[in-house]
Amino acid sequence: MSPASGELTEESDPSCLSPSRATALLGRAPWRRFATVGDSLSAGVGDPSPGYGLLGWPARVADVLRQVHPDLAYLNLGEAGATTSRTLRTQVNRLVEFRPDLIHLPCGANDLFRPDPDYALIASRLERLFEVAAGTGAQLTVFTLGRAFVVPRYADWTDRVRRINAITRALAGRHDAVLVDMWDHPVNDRPDLLSRDGIHFATVGQAVLATEIVKGLAGRLAAPS
Does domain 31-222 have CATH number 3.40.50.1110? Predict the structure, then answer.
């Protein structure tokens, strides 16, 4: 299925980098072992979007890095439904054993799916996850949740997202992580952004996420040491 006349495609989307431009931005990237841990957002789950490739954002980033380092090792441990505690319990050991030098971490989205989230506990568990990841010596990345991500059954959902995003921003600052702040990114206003479940970014959003991660990493490479 091709997009209707006038609609964006991945090639024409101003929020997406071309493969050659993305590779050029990461041409000096040192990372050869890339891992993602966490939930379905870390895994890159999403429905297809007409005019956009089918890959989730982590595979897209891996493909860019593979152009720089053909021997790139890539491990995606993201699991649908994983909470922060489940990530610590089932993924962290495998993450450390992989010896990554680039890690993407979750932002606790699934911890919000309960009647009364315990934000102090969420922050504590995320802190532990960041500490373990930082202990590998890897560069860390993380993104905040976008405002398009809405769960109507929770009347206070926007406040929940704001609070978890504040925790994520603080942790990113403490652990020198590349933070991609998606809360108010313009892509949130696109009517075709979300998958049918109303939660995950469709591949139009996956392409934009990958672009933002690449830009964030490029900014880190360009920063004074």
Answer: yes
